[in-house]
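Encode chain A's predicted structure.
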Amino acid sequence: MTLTARQEEIKAEFIRVRGAWSETWDGVLRLDPEFLMAYLNFSAVPWRKNHLDDKVKEFVYIAIDANATHMYLPGVRQHIRAALKLGATPPEIMEVLELSATLGIHAMNIGVPILVEVLAEKGLRNGPAPLDDHQERLKAEFTRTRGYWHAFWDEMLELDPEMFEAYTEFSSVPWRSGTLEPKVKEFVYIAFDTAATHLYTKGLKLHIENAIGYGATPQEILEVMEIAAVLGIHGVTAAAPILLEEMSAAGVSAPAIER
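Encoded structure for chain A:
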């Protein structure tokens, strides 16, 4: 398409600030360039502050885009490409994906306490049972490998040690063999826990605490949240091309919106 002078100006500014251009932005630029400019100013906050390394920022974007609650594949590709250009290795990126894959366990973190609450209300549970030797070993192994223990694991370990053991093995892979520093691993957890598509507040608080324990600053953690805060734009970038296709099919022209 032929861009207006203003569209060219906004595209150039986008590339200057964000370092690259993706075709996912073409439809938004064509339909409403001023909205794209407002998004650029919004999304650029963590890129102006720069408390996190650029490579770590890309890891955060990947963690937000490449998980079951969002799965925005154009963003995954864009930020993997950017991370590689910034020097990230394939094992580092794979580690981000592996860390993001733990999100599903929150079904147990939320569901098991509710099950326990209902059982107690119906007189089917009198209180936590003591852990046996096997469960104590599982707890010690999780604490050793993952570097923490939290009370929201207690009831799952008590009621479903087989699931807890399998999850410990699954979630510990990047902690045993990965190359990212622990602080960055915690940033990945914070990113998807704080994202609007998930909002897992118990995990968010825990991983903020863990990140601070590994030396993260409040400014770094805020920057992770700032990156997650722009997630809603994907509704626009995914739908704008569909709008353009349907406009074309209906014979409707697509001038830029004037403001």
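The mean pLDDT is 94.
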